[in-house]
Amino acid sequence: MPGDPCVYGPEEVQDVLDSHTIVVGSVADDPFAIDVAHFTGQEADISDLIAFKSFANSEFCPRFISDETDFDHIGTQLRGRTVVVVSTCCAEHTRNARAMRTFLVARAAKDNGAARVVLVEPDLFYSAQDRGPRPEHGKVDFERSPEDYKKFDGQPFSSKLYAQLLKTSGVDAVITVHNHSVSVQKFFTEEFAGQFDNLEPGALYADYLARHSVTVPRSDDAGFVVCAPDRGATGFVLQVFDLLQRQSRRMLLGSSPSLLLMEKTREGERRVVIRPHPESPTSLSGLAGRDVVVIDDMVRTGNTIVQCCRTLKAAGARHVIYMVTHFYSSAEVKENLNDPSIDEIVTTNTLPTVLNRDMQGRLRRKMLVLKIEKWIANTLRQKLFGDPRPRFQPPYTIDVSSKNPLWDRVHDVGR
Description:
CATH topology of the largest domain: Rossmann fold
Order of helices and strands: HEHEEEHEHHEHEHEHEEEHEHEHEHEH
Mean pLDDT: 88
CATH architecture of the largest domain: 3-Layer(aba) Sandwich
Helix content: 25-40%
CATH class of the largest domain: Alpha Beta
Low-confidence stretches: 1-18
Shape: globular
Number of helices: 13
Distance between the termini: 33 Å
Strand content: 15-25%
């Protein structure tokens, strides 16, 4: 890699991209990895760069493809190159299997001369296992109780181990999306000496909302409401709220968004009570007839979100949109989010199975997916080559079922 990437202009950036960086996946037919490679400017197919082989004993072995007649560059064909490994969770391979494949692809790159290996893993594996049974096992933003320690008693500190194994395998930098864990962010940053980027999609959400008429003012000058469903989501929601305020000023709209902060109290494993935070700028009494956008980083069961949205509807909200980054298409999530209190669901494809209409189930009628491969490609060009100008704007592609009423309005936007 050149010492000062900022000296390159657009044409030189593309030359560097073509000659010094290759993008691969950890499986041969990962559509997410293929799209990232394409939008980054790579002309060669991933399958022309790396082959994936499983031996008769079931062991996996990747191989970067080389000229079979070249005996002068054995073990050095990747010398000086940056190898970007894109890894997402897909149905054909478990997370455990994908992790092991990533370790071996990274090691194959380094053992054949690669100068740098960058892992792009939008939904960072093992992040839910972000602490262990002892005080030194993880850094959290709350005081751990004996019950919290006991929950991890006898378990490994898996997310820390995952970071260490990635580093040992040859990964030099990690790029992920909207990671929720303070602990994971801290020790990944330490393990990779600052080469850890946790991309937050606030600008994508603000752009989408601004482009799709949510910010149209009402006759009483009351705009829509941005809502944080609990304390953990507040920081990110404040970021989106600030971006939307800027958008509304630039677009010279007659109204700007309002902010509603909610808090939850657990009353059991699956039961939560949702109420406005005492310091929330907007109260439930101010929601009558207004659109509300509830924003969170992930959904695993949907119980909290449904309770929040029911509370909003009961207060008179006209239309409730739920925006979430990581969407787990479990049977419980699909059942819960089919609740009539949620009018729309907007998510990303950090978990690509969400694009499968069968995995969406009945939710396809109110679900819209922002595909983020263009955003990842923009980020790679900026991070690796100092290209300050996003190549793709908007940095996402919209995927929506024809059964969704939004189809006629948005199916051409972002394509």
